[in-house]
Amino acid sequence: MITLKYNVDHFLKTEIVMSLIKLTLKKQNGCDRAEYFGSGYIFRNANGALFVKLIGEYSQAQGSTTALMELLDTHNVETGEIIDKQHYYSMIATDISGEEWRSDNVWLTDDSVYGEKGFTIIGKINEAIVGVYKNYTEVKKSYATVVTRSGYNLPWNERIEEGGASYFGVCDLSDVEIKIRVKKNDTYNEIYVEIGDHDDLPLMVSLILEALSIGVGVFIEPLLVEFFSGIEIVGRIYPQKQTSEIQLFPPFPVKAPGDAIFLQQFIKGYLRNINERYSSLFGYWYRFYKVENNEIENQALVITTCIEGVLKKYYNRFSKVDSVFLDIMAHTIKEIKASDIVMDKRAMDAIKSILINANNKAFNTQNTLYELQKIGLIEKELIKSWKAIRHKSHHAGELKFNKKDFQDFYADIISCLELFYTLIIGITGEELVCYEYSKKGASTRIIKHNID
Predict the structure, then answer these.
(1) pTM for this one?
(2) Which are the contacts of 447, defined by CB distance < 8 A and separation ≥ 6?
(3) Could you list the pLDDT tens digit for every one of the 452 residues in the chain?
(4) What is the DSSP string of 194-233?
(5) Which one, of 86, 54, 57, lies nearest residue 73 by Cα?
(6) CA gap 59, 36 in Å, rounded
(7) Whole-angstrom distance, CA of residue 201 vs CA of residue 194
(8) Are 209 and 271 in contact (CB under 8 A)?
(9) How far is CA 75 from CA 28, 72, 83, 245, 410, in A?
(10) Packing angle between helix 296-314 and helix 280-290, nearest 10 degrees?
(11) For 446, how many CA atoms within 13 A lie in the half-sphere containing its CB?
(12) Are 452 and 429 in contact (CB under 8 A)?
C-alpha cells in the first residue's frame, strides 16, 4: 500500500520500490510460451526510471535455450522500425501485502541472465504501474492526491504554521465547482483534487496537470497518484524522468499570492474546453517546451509551426479566402491546360503547381491571423513577428550572430510566444490577462474574446 500516510519522501528516494512475492511477465502477442513466472521486485535507477526484476525457474516446456530464443525474438526488429506492442510484455505482480499491480509495455533488457535451473529477467517499465487496494475508512467524496516534483513556482497564497514558523506553502486554486490545493514540501509537492461527482476523475486530474504545466511554464509530471472512492483506492506509480531545468516564460503572472486567480481561471476554462488528455493544444505547447534549451533557430521553427497547428485545429473557421482571386486562379488553370503553348515540361509543371497551390481552398494561416486581429484577439505587431521568423526559419539561411540581429531574432521569438499564449487563452474562453512579451517591461493586457 502506498497511501500518502506513509513517508512519500522515502518512497521517492528508495531504490527498491516494491517487493513482489508473485510476478508474471507475458508477451503481448498472445503466445502462451513467451511467459515467465517467479518472484522479484521493482526498483528505480539513479535517473528515476523503473525496472522489474523477475527471478524464476523454468517450466517443463522451457529451458535456457528456449528462453534465450524468446528473448532474442523480442529484440528481433529492423533498425529504424517502430517497435510494435507485440514485442513488449505485460506485468502482473503481487506485493507482500497481497495487493495486485499491473503494467503494460514492459521491455526486456539485455541484462537478463539464463542459468541451468532458472533465470533472472530485467524489464524496463515504460508506463504507470496500476494497483487497486482497500482503504481502511470509507470516504464520502471521490478525490485524488498527486505527488509531483517540487521546484516549480506557484502563487502560494496560504500560510503553513509549522514549528513556530509561518510561511506561504499552499496554493489554493479552489472555486465552487472544483477543489485544488497544492502543498509545498522540500522534495515534492502534493496536489489534492476534488471535483464533485465527475465520473472520470483520472481524466480531470490529467487535464489539471496539463493546465498547471502551461500556466507555470514547467512540465509537471505525476510521480505517484491515488484515487479514493468509497473503500477503494486506485494507485498509480509513474517512472520518473530526470530533473529538467526547462522553464518557459509563463503566459500570465504566477508569482504573488494574488496571482492565484489567474491560474484558477485558466484551469477552469481549460477543463471546460479541453476534453481529452494529451490534446493537440497541449501537444503543441509541449513541443515548444522541449526545444526551449535548443538552438535559437530550432525554437523559431517550432514556435511558428505550433502557432500554425493551433490555428488550424481550433481557429479554422476564421480562415477566409478571396473568392474573386480563387475564381481568377481556377480560370487561369483551365486556360493553360486548354492552350497550345509550347514550353519546357519542367517550367510548365512549376507554373501549374504555383497556380494550383494558389487555388487551394485549404486553411490559410496568415488570413486567419488577420481575421483574429479584426476581432481584437491579437495585435498586428505579433503577426509581423510571426511572418518574420517563419520566413527565416523555413528557408535555408544562416542567422548572423552579431548582437543586434541576434537580439531582433530572439525578440520575434518572444513575441511569437505571446501570440501562442494569446491563442491558448482564447480557446479557454476566459477573460484573462496575458503578458505582453512584445513590449518592454512586465506589462499585461486582458484577453476578452472567446473563439465562440
Answers:
(1) 0.85
(2) 377, 422, 425, 426, 430, 431, 432, 433, 434
(3) 455 545 687 777 788 888 999 999 998 876 655 788 999 999 988 888 899 999 998 776 555 556 555 655 555 666 666 677 888 899 999 999 888 999 999 998 888 787 878 889 999 999 889 998 877 777 778 899 999 988 888 999 999 888 888 889 999 999 888 999 999 988 899 999 998 766 788 999 999 999 999 999 999 999 999 998 877 889 999 987 755 678 899 999 999 999 999 999 999 999 999 999 999 999 999 999 998 878 888 899 999 999 999 999 999 888 766 666 667 777 777 777 777 777 777 877 777 777 666 655 557 888 899 999 999 999 999 999 999 988 877 765 566 667 888 888 889 999 999 999 999 999 998 889 999 999 988 799 998 765 55
(4) E-TT-S-HHHHHHHHHHHHHHHHTS---EEEEEEEEEEEE
(5) 86
(6) 9
(7) 8
(8) no
(9) 14, 5, 9, 34, 44
(10) 170
(11) 4
(12) yes
DSSP letter (8 states) at residue 240 = P
Length of the chain: 452
Q: Cα(397)–Cα(389) distance, rounded to whole angstroms?
A: 11
* Cell numbers at 451, concatenated: 473563439
Going through 76-199 in order, the beta strands assigned E by DSSP cover 89-95, 100-108, 113-114, 118-125, 129-149, 158-162, 165-172, 179-184, 188-194
Joined together, the cell numbers standing for residue 265 give 481561471
Are 57 and 131 in contact by the 8 Å Cβ rule? The answer is no
Return the residue matching grid coordinates 521546484: 151
Tell me the Ramachandran region of residue 15: left when phi exceeds 0, alpha when psi lies from -120 to 50, beta otherwise.
alpha
